[in-house]
Amino acid sequence: MLCWIYCIPFALFMYYAAAPLLLFFSAYVLKRGICRDSLLLRYAAVFMAVLAAAKIFLLDMHSLSMEIACRAGEKLCGSFGSTLFQAGGVSLFALAAGGLYMLGKRYGSGYKPKRENIPQNDRDLRLWANSSLFLSIFLCCWLAAPFTYYLIFGTMPEMFFKLRWQYIAVLNFVTLAVGFWRIEDYYLYYNPDGAKNIRQRDAGKTWVPADTLWTVLPIYLVALASGVMSDDLFRSL
């Protein structure tokens, strides 16, 4: 019964979220392909983006449109509405595929990052890594604070209902996303000529900002799961 309550909505959410997540991931693959000068990664990124667009416009758009139309009325709930939504999805997919093809041509084998876009130091990456670490710690403390308060005083403070943990989680997600995006610039910082030209003043570091980001990521995911469970617990208190 619990699996039906929690697993089915989660599986449905993941079904519709898979395509946007794949599109989001393809942007990172494209960035890595550009910074690492890998033509295979660039084309793989475009291919993943095409797959994501196909699912969004050919499958998800049709099913969601039919569901909304059937709730609104019966005029578009039949075969006419289905055909109309399919035609619209195919048209939008054709436009998206054309745009992705132009993107692949733009960032193909002849494209290289501009020299002035290569950062002179890792200050920006360190800023985003430290910000994500701070927000992850703050998120964990914010999730633990109401339960600690409840165990001590026996009541639940209203402050935790007004400033929800989701706001902190979204801000933390932004810092993580930007941080991982900047990691590839960090690679260019160490390899400005595409060779093993490691800068000696940073070569001996045992901990770099990229390590901070990869450490924060699982902590953030655990905090997200804890936040969802805490919402269910709040309702029972």
**Secondary-structure element series:** HHHHHHHH
> What distance separates the N and C termini?
21 Å
Structure class: mainly alpha
**Shape assignment:** flat
- Rg of Cα set: 23 Å
Helix content: over 70%
The total strand number stands at: 0
Count structural domains.
2
Largest sheet: none
- What do the pLDDT scores average to? 78
* Strand content range: under 5%
Q: Please, how many helices? A: 8
Indicate the low-confidence ranges by residue numbers: 194-201
Gist of the model:
With 237 residues, this protein is mainly α. The protein has eight helices and no strands. It has helices spanning 2-35, 39-72, 79-106, 123-153, 159-162, 165-190, 200-203, 209-236.
